[in-house]
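Input.
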Amino acid sequence: MSLLELEGVHKRYTDKSGERVVLRDVSLRAEAGDLVVVWGLRCSGRSTLLRVAAGIEPPDGGVVRFDGHDLISHGERLLGGGIGYCQKTLRFADGQSALDHAMVGLLSRWVSPTKARSLALEALERVGAGHCARMTQRELSSAEAMRVALARTLALKPRLVAIDEPVKGVELIDRDPILSLLRSLADEGLTVLASTGESTGLSQADRGLILGDGELRGAPPPAPATVVPLRRGIERQASG
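Output.
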């Protein structure tokens, strides 16, 4: 039995322009320690897929199971427990400092302030954001804000984390470290389901999947970067 199972999942939305099928007979399995990344164009439904997988939205058809439990009937209990959905937005109402943000989910579950502070600090250290604990939202870089948001999710000790576009809006130089962090979390046994709109987001995944026209299919591994040799003149200058 896989930790996360989607079988024949359908999802559609209806608006003034009519009905739009977002997910069409989608099936997906993820084991403990898997890093699975779903690539798709804008409006391809990748965010919807993550919300359905996390139990935030119910499917219109098919089954979603977490650790053998049907999310339609158990989703509210599992979300925030075994399942963590990482929301990248840090809302001012959630607190003044990064530590406040990391504690908010714990406090909402009646964890004592002392215990919540300890778990939040542990989570911040785990994601490489321990130095951010006293920083305000305005003082955080885009990469630091992403790490704090992830710490807020990890503080709840989930077994599965769904994270939508973890490197979107992050400076180019900071994107690889964020992807490496997700890889390290998976290597520790956490199941990570992420989405991306860029092919580079697939680089460290165990499995890369493509979502298009409502259908989910496998993606080829990213091509290795081309190594361009230095010109002779530059080589001599560098050696001198």
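Residues 220-240 have pLDDT under 50 and may be disordered.
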